[in-house]
Amino acid sequence: MSQIILDAVEKVYPGGVHAVKDASLVVEDGEFVTIVGPSGCGKTTTLRTLAGFEQPTSGTVGLGGIEVSGVPPNERATGMVFQDFALFPHMTVGENIAFGLTVGGDWPEDEVDTRIEEMLELVELSGFRDRMPDQLSGGQQQRIALARALAPEPEVLLLDEPLASLDKQLRESMQVELRRIQEQIGITTILVTHNQTEALTMSDRIAVMNDGRFEQVGAPTEVYQQPATKFVADFIGTANVFDGTVRNVSDSRVTVDCDGVEFEAAAPDYVAVGDSVTVVTRPEHTVVEPGDTRTNVFEGDVSVSRFLGDHHECHVTLPSGSDVVGVVDSDGPTVSGGDRVSLGVDAKDCLVVVE
Amino acid sequence: MAHEAQTEPATDSGRLPPIKYLVVSYPAIALVTLFAVPLLLLFVFSFFRNISGGYLRYVVTAENYVRFLQEPLYLDRLVFSLRIAAVTTLGSLVLGYPLAYRLATTDSSLLRRAVMVLVVSSLWLTFIIRGYAWAVLLRSNGLFPILAAELGLTDAPVSLVPGYWALVVSMVYVFLPFMVLTLYTSIKNVDHELREAARNLGAGPITTFRHVTLPLTKDGIISGSLLVFVLSMGVYVLPRILGNPPQWTLAVVIGNQVTVESNVPFGATLSIILMLVVVALIAVTVRLAGVDTFGVSATEEGEQG
Amino acid sequence: MKVPDNTKISQNRRGFLKYTSVAGAGALTALSGCVGGFSGDGTASSLTVSSFGGAFKEILEAELYEPFEEETGISIESQAQGGTAEIIPRIRSAVENGNAPVDVLTVPVPGVLRGLNSDLWMTHEESEFENLEFISDDLMKYDDDGNLVGIGSQAWLINLVHNTEETDNGPTSWTSLWDSTYEDQMAMMTPPVTGYMPDIAAAIHFDGADSLQSESDIRDVFEKLSEVTPQAQMWYTNEANFQSSLENGETPMGMLYNDITLVLQDQGAPVESTFVDEGSVLGSGRWVSPRTSENGTAITQFIDYASRPAVQDRVSRNLYTVPTIEEQHSELDAETYQRVAGPGLDSAIVPNFDMYVERQEFINQLWNELIIDS
Lengths: 355, 305, 374
Prior knowledge:
The structure holds 3 protein chains of 3 kinds.
Chain A: E1 4-12, E2 18-27, E3 32-36, H1 43-51, E4 58-63, E5 66-67, E6 78-81, H2 93-102, H3 109-122, H4 138-150, E7 156-160, H5 168-185, E8 188-193, H6 196-202, E9 205-210, E10 213-218, H7 220-225, H8 230-235, E11 240-249, E12 253-258, E13 261-266, E14 276-281, E15 287-288, E16 296-307, E17 312-317, E18 323-328, E19 340-345, E20 351-353
Parallel strand pairs in A: 3-8, 3-9, 6-7, 7-8
Antiparallel strand pairs in A: 1-2, 1-4, 4-5, 9-10, 11-12, 11-14, 12-13, 14-20, 15-19, 16-17, 16-19, 17-18
Chain B: H1 18-45, E1 49-50, E2 56-57, H2 63-70, H3 72-105, H4 109-121, H5 127-138, H6 143-150, H7 164-188, H8 192-200, H9 205-216, H10 218-233, H11 237-242, H12 250-259, H13 264-289
Antiparallel strand pairs in B: 1-2
Helix pairs in contact in B: 1-13, 3-7, 3-10, 5-7, 7-10, 8-9, 10-13, 12-13
Chain C: H1 11-14, E1 21-23, E2 46-52, H2 55-72, E3 75-81, H3 84-96, E4 104-108, H4 109-117, E5 140-142, E6 148-163, E7 186-189, H5 192-195, H6 197-205, H7 215-225, E8 232-236, H8 239-247, E9 253-257, H9 258-266, E10 271-274, E11 281-288, H10 296-306, H11 309-319, H12 334-341, H13 353-358, H14 360-372
Parallel strand pairs in C: 1-3, 2-3, 2-4, 7-8, 7-9
Antiparallel strand pairs in C: 4-11, 5-6, 6-9, 6-10, 6-11
Helix pairs in contact in C: 2-11, 3-4, 6-7, 7-14
């Protein structure tokens, strides 16, 4: 049982900084959960509290069914991969990996040997055992850091922005690698990052954090398609966000007036006429000069059109002044700055977010 | 210690513009006149002959060096100087490391600044004042003997000065700041994330210290120890204030040769020998430890230490 | 070097300090430069005189220099000087450059001898003096050609002293230096050219100066002398160091100059000076001048004045040094003479000064081995 339970964890620093206000989360055995949010939202503090480097001001931390709030880090069954890898520069790769076994624990010598080889194989760096950390590339260091964290068979794996210092290509391949390894071992994992792409691609569930609180916790598709708050909608993926007032409510539709532009959107639960809501559309659903009919159509002037390989991304300014991002299909018309265009989005692709 | 002259960037032709020779030459001139020339004079004087009851004769003779080898007293003083330097180094390391560690790892910048100011400002006072302060504290009506008597360690307040331990205590006190400052930098350079990684992997605070912090501060320990050792080899004032003749270091004997015995050549000889011993020690340490001390490195450029 | 603590002198001895004093102690580089102003006819109107510093210098200023100034109109610039080892090199380099940083100095005998070896001293014409007949013959120094170079200036006795609050019975015999009853309680003087401990050992345990003639005899004396080290609590070069320890009782007894001890006693310190049973050690100084000085006339006048019995007596009364005039010429009353010279100079131990000059290196080597290897 390596379930993680964060219950109303709060952390206030001596200087008065209220880093974590109310974090509650349950991570199931073998789950890969990513805590994602902007810098300063409290995600790293939450991770460090899990690792034992911070003590919660209030609330509890549970690992594997035991409350560990007061337990020091060296007595918790957590393995952490640090942002800068933190490999011991005065030890070989093999010694680094074995640290948790020989120094932090007391595994018998022959088992240590086998385990080192196992871990090196897992991260596909067999033969690197006698190298020094400064002889490794960034990606290799990261993999060794992972091997080191996993070697002592921890119950929980914690990753603190592990891919932040890698270049884009490496980052993408590591995303795949990390997930593969995690699934192979089946270890409960929490990853902390500000990169929402990582969150979406790697996780079983995402916990979106803002200003010390989780604004939404759910599967990537759910968080993406049904953001619970404006922040989540904005942070995860790109979004067009329109604030407005509800004009009409029917069975499955609501009509929202956003600064003169009227949207017909899918009706959420519990909304009434006059409520202040936010309408959110994704660019991929907001088509410029759509070939077919769309529920909501509006016009605006193109400010920028960007070619992104498989489609064009169009930034359009509406008469009301708001900016909308839409897409032009590859077989759609060519648009350039200054053109007046129409955009269309279906009602089912318009989300209504009630805060 | 020697410092490198800054070289100005070269012009396109690859040679230094004439005006810049002036800038480069100033440290070079200072080095030569204030350091190299007196040293050369010392070396030359060590070969002159001393006249009892008179001055000296400008003849070249090795008799002073022979005297050093033949009269056991002077080798004995050299050994004593080495011994007391070693004790002082050990003492300042044992006391200095915990202090430097606390300073380098504390979160409170107020504490750090306050202690640093204390440590550094004690360097502003001359050796003499600090030495006499210990003389006052350690004589029979001084604070420490009285304390010792109160605590029952001795029957009555016993004066420790002049004496060997008074000298050691004052030397450790005087040189501790050098050790602390060197260690502080070294410890600070150990990324605290490394300590956290060790804790995360199951190492307690002491184990973390032993396996991570200590090995990574090896350079600082060696640099600091070398610095204190070399400084200790040259103490002149403290043995005279706090010690009796059996505690006189070679430096005191050298001073006496010149001021009391009017034997400048022999004093010069002893000085040269003392200097050679110290230089040899530094060279051996740097070589063995492979440490980048004072910019003198035993490893080649490009190699990682 | 005698440097009594000058802060302890009471007001009436300080006199008028209208003389500029230049501290000469420790300055090995010669303060070369012509000193002394000249009036048109070649006679000097000022003289530079140096002596041991501290109270010694202050009392000389009050009782010797100032009256001299009043009488002759020649002003005196007073300087303090360091030990023999500092004075001689300084004078030597000045003389080599043709300069005279000071006109008259009072130098202990070994220093005078060393100066002779380097031909530093001006010779004097005895006929130009009036008062030399009063000075003890022993205290006049001639060079190898029979010329007068040094005239007795002051004499001093090294006694055994003790702190009266720490002990009732201070040591009275030199044998106490070898007596384990006094273990770790005594202050002893170093270097030997100042403290004359080899002479003490020779006088007590051997045949005096006869036992200091050959190297092997000297070694025997030093062997015996090495037995005093257990009794030594401190070895001092500068009497100021022992003074403070003596007064506060830290070092309750030891060897010290009679004159300083009496000065301290007058100030109320609980100290007592005892003339030693076997004879106190008699050291003395001579007025000498660098041969490069151009103030010969004024120098003669000064030394002559200092040799006047009345002047010698006056200095002794205040400084407690032993007058260098013969006893018969002194008008000190019996009580004062007793305080200053004890049982008299005939019973004193006179050191073998030549040894400290001719065998300087040898003696120093033996001495260093003695005090360091203890």
